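ok so i was messing around last nite and threw this chain in just to see what happens. nothing serious, just curious
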Amino acid sequence: MRLGFFLLLFYISGYFVQPMWFHAKDVDSSTHRFLAGIITQISVNVLKLFYANINVSSDFIVSINGKQCIALRPGCNGFNPIMRISLTLAVYPMVFKSKLLMLPLTVLILLIAAILHFMILIPISYYAPNWYVFSHNYLTKTLFFTFYFFCWIIWEKNRSKLR
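result:
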């Protein structure tokens, strides 16, 4: 029952977050630069273990062996999912103290999901660019929904402990 309620809240939150934030995806905001900087730097630093010549430019374009592969654009930095899950947590039936403790953990989990999302897409865009759209739209969205579900499990496990 609570999973259904969570899914309903998450679905409804999309109607509030999409109009408020997603229309600003083309704006070069400080929030985008902050999130994109974290995501690209961590992704590139980890992938340097596998690619000797991987670099990221100041406008968040990743290149491997001099070939531009992928760019982290506004709207693809995890901000929308973080806002959606935060709004869902805000109205989720849980005591306020629990929500305050769960919010930073939830944001961290989704930031990790955004980093994994980007790290998966970099090699795909380099080796199989024809698979990029499919991977971005289906493979990594499944990853995000798995992390959403993981957040819900954490909320439920800690909901009764933190009363």
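not much to say yet. The two ends are 20 Å apart (CA to CA).
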